[in-house]
Write a structure and sequence with these properties.
The chain is α+β, with helices and mostly antiparallel strands. The chain has 6 helices and 11 strands. The chain has helices at about 35-40, 95-100, 120-140, 140-150, 155-180, 185-190; strands spanning about 1-5, 10-15, 20, 25, 45-50, 60, 65-70, 75-80, 85, 90-95, 115-120. Strands 2-1-5-8-7 form a 5-stranded mixed β-sheet. Strands 3-4 form a two-stranded antiparallel sheet. The relative contact order is 0.10.
Length: about 210
């Protein structure tokens, strides 16, 4: 990405895929590929560098828009993020004031109380994911249970052990998510190390 700087101010942002008019002069797209940095700077075009120091994983945080500024000493235009905001880890519930206000966007559903969830937090979403993943794994061996009910054919012990292990791990994972103090703690649970292992662990699958 490039920026046009005039009198110290950024006046235009460019992707560098087409030519540009600066004053009375028309420059071809080659200005962004063939010209040297110094040649571009001479006509007011500068490379944009993005500082991602403050940028965080958007699964857990809401990042700010990028703010661009011309750095005359570095002869660069720098883009920076502000401080990211952690996504809510807990559910947000309706307040009585919101329930009573008919003008609020997304009015409370009929019969809503201050215990009714307005916006789901990360914990609710993550626990639902765990439940769905566990259900999908168990579905793979449900036919053993159906066969047992219909034909009284014994379920192999390995299958019984596996299904118990899935349910046990599911419960363990849900507890860990529930007990996480905040969003950074949730992120830590899901962060894998170099060996691909995460503190939360994974649901067991059949070998």
């Amino acid at each position: 990405m490039f920026a046009l700087v005039e009198s110290g101010n950024i006046t235009k942002m460019m992707n560098g895929n087409k030519g540009i008019t600066i004053g009375d002069n028309q420059y071809p797209a080659a200005i962004f590929t063939i010209w040297t940095e110094a040649e571009r700077n001479a006509v007011g075009v500068y490379t944009v560098e993005i500082d991602e120091t403050n940028r965080k994983n958007e699964e857990w945080y809401i990042n700010t828009n990028i703010t661009y500024a011309y750095d005359s000493s570095a002869k660069k235009v720098k883009g920076t993020y502000g401080s990211a905001t952690a996504r809510a880890h807990a559910d947000t519930k309706w307040t009585q004031a919101q329930i009573d206000d008919p003008t609020i966007v997304g009015q409370a559903p009929e019969g809503a109380t201050t215990n009714t969830v307005r916006l789901e937090g990360l914990k609710t979403k993550l626990i639902r994911q765990v439940k769905e993943e566990a259900e999908g794994i168990l579905n793979e061996t449900d036919w053993y249970v159906t066969r047992k009910a219909e034909e009284d054919t014994a379920i192999p012990s390995s299958i019984t052990t596996h299904r118990k292990a899935v349910r046990a791990k599911q419960a363990e994972m849900e507890t860990a998510i529930t007990n996480a103090a905040d969003t950074p703690a949730l992120e830590t649970l899901y962060t894998r190390n170099d060996s691909g292992v995460r503190p939360l662990g994974d649901l067991p699958t059949l070998e």
